[in-house]
Write a structure and sequence with these properties.
2 copies of one chain form a homodimer. With about 350 residues, chain A is an alpha/beta fold. Chain A has 11 helices and 17 strands. In chain A, strands 6-5-4-7-10-16-17 form a 7-stranded mixed β-sheet, with helices on both faces. A 4-stranded mixed β-sheet of chain A has the order 11-8-9-15, with helices on one face.
Chain lengths: ~350, ~350
């Protein structure tokens, strides 16, 4: 199962809104349709969104037709702007679009075939690097998990959310392969139930003992001393370690701290936004009230009720035990650890270009 | 709107599982059907369950037919046993059944008409006393609410849950009539969505500015300093103040403590169980996994997924700022305050019988 792939000039993805009832794969050569897929959460998960966006720019490059008179650069910039407006919080989206823009800018005055090859290489690079980052996150993170662990996770951070085996969830599955995981509790994750629909589906498919709970049951399990660690992903990590992630993450972090339970955030370095100083600078998307008032199309609240529906919340760095990245495990003080990482990443990139 | 009423020898109740889509009133003269209604949450809320159970014993007394050969006492005891098995946590149920049993025992050797009048008086007494308790809880509790308050509540503790105007919710509506409430945030309260379906419906009907949120959004609002107080009801309060209430209450209490926000529990004295020493002695009901895996009949998780679905959790007394009862506002140490209440209640009852 691959969340998003480039197949013969088209983007192919599994429609995550239809899971677990149906496994529907969608192919499109229209970047606008791909943008809609991101907006509707047919494709979701910060790393998977980043990969999809890179492929979206490829689709725009290949496009002929209505805007054929526009210059190539205008067409690409329009696509980048369109894709950039789909979801505001996950930084992988913007980073990925920026990589595609840079690749284009480097070669834009050369032969179209050369540009196309470079763009495709860049997009496939985003995908490959994310898959490799997942592997490293799984390996690093699994070292944090003691034998006989019962773990709690929120939302979905598995293969569906990434181009590889996942972030927080790959730590779980890697530790499970090492025989260290007794059980996993999966928060259902209202409003869109990614935990109930996707995480249980992925973990059951891997033969892991997973138990579904409502989000507000997590605190009870912690009080009963049934949870050894909480693992979550991230949509954007600020320079000081503050982390934007699926709504409900903050409450889990407070509960974990109250019960003395380790709280691990896992994400590739591409999710760290060095340009954002702290969590209060991260834009938090608000979603359509219907995602709360309707479930599977059925209304569950009175017509016209007011709703507050942020998609994410910000967990302050002081509630995070460690941040597991593909470049290693970060520990407090995060500001220094992340700055060091930034310097290191720049040095490496500087060497390879 | 009356949650449960005695109408011409039958019990009439509003089916809360159909709200807010439909206002369906059900009438029955069969205590078994009434027990099913309690089990299925057509009637819910600890005080309303207590009232319904008292009327259920009346129905059993009036019953002729299949078990006409059984003695009156056997028939009543069978009904009390049946009704007592519907739900284990709310103590009002058992207290109410015990009151009906005592009323019967006092007069069982007398004239059937006399017994019937006494039983009906007792059942209507349970109902009337609960309505009066609601009024006093509203008045006492409203004194705790400062002007311009934004309040957060969980589940439903309004007219639907009681024989009167509610417990925690009556504090909200009373304070709102006094012009002190700017806004109310209502947790949707998974799995059965009593907040989304019932609390919003009741508060909108009373012209109060209510905003629906998913349960895990509460922590974010607290962090944003948007919540001035949290108000919840109770299904059973132990002698030390530990409180069983709808799943999710414990997490809210931890979050409120973390943010320095007052956390108020409101319940009639009939919800205090002096015979239960602490929260660990309160039986917590586990519900059918389908209540988590299906919403409005639609599956939202893979078939066969394991589920942990406790209906309630226990909030330790040290996380509760005050307990508002119809006998006044209780403050820590609760063990002493509750013991005093118990002595007082016994003294009053002793004087009136």
């Amino acid at each position: 199962m691959t969340s998003v792939a480039w197949v013969k000039g088209k983007v192919r993805y599994i429609d995550q809104t239809r899971l677990p009832a149906e496994e529907v794969y969608v192919e499109t050569s229209d970047y606008r349709r791909l943008g809609e897929a991101i907006r509707r959460l047919e494709i979701r998960g910060a790393p998977a969104i980043g990969v999809a966006a890179a492929f979206g720019v490829m689709l725009a490059f290949d496009e002929e037709g209505a805007d054929a008179t526009a210059t190539r650069e205008q067409r690409l910039e329009a696509a980048i702007a369109f894709l950039g407006r789909t979801r505001p919080t996950a930084v992988n989206l913007f980073r990925s679009l920026e990589r595609m823009r840079s690749a284009f800018q480097r070669l834009k005055l050369t032969d179209p075939d050369l540009i196309r090859r470079a763009l495709l290489e860049e997009a496939l690079g985003v995908q490959r690097e994310d898959a490799e980052a997942c592997d490293r996150i799984g390996e690093y993170g699994a070292t944090l998990i003691p034998p006989n662990s019962t773990l709690l996770t929120h939302c979905n951070t598995g293969a569906l959310a990434t181009a590889g085996e996942g972030t927080a969830q790959n730590i779980i599955t890697t530790a499970a392969r090492q025989g260290k995981v007794s059980r996993v509790y999966a928060d259902e994750t209202r409003p869109l139930l990614q935990g109930a629909r996707l995480t249980t589906w992925e973990l059951m498919g891997r033969g892991i003992d997973v138990v579904l709970i409502t989000d507000s049951t997590a605190g009870v399990l912690m009080k009963q001393r049934k949870i050894d660690a909480v693992l979550v992903g991230a949509d954007r990590i600020a320079a000081n370690g503050d982390t934007a992630n699926k709504i409900g993450t903050y409450a889990l972090a407070v509960l974990a701290a109250h019960h003395g339970i380790p709280f691990y955030v896992a994400a590739p370095c591409s999710t760290i936004d060095h340009g954002t100083a702290s969590g209060s600078d991260i834009p938090v998307e608000e979603r359509d009230p219907r995602e709360v008032t309707h479930i599977a199309g059925v209304p569950v609240a009175p017509p016209g009720v007011h709703v507050y529906a942020p998609a994410f919340d910000i967990t302050p760095h002081n509630l995070i035990t460690t941040i597991v990245t593909d470049a290693g495990i970060l520990r407090p003080p995060y500001e220094a650890a992340i700055a060091k990482l930034n310097a290191g990443v720049h040095a490496t990139r500087g060497g390879s270009t």
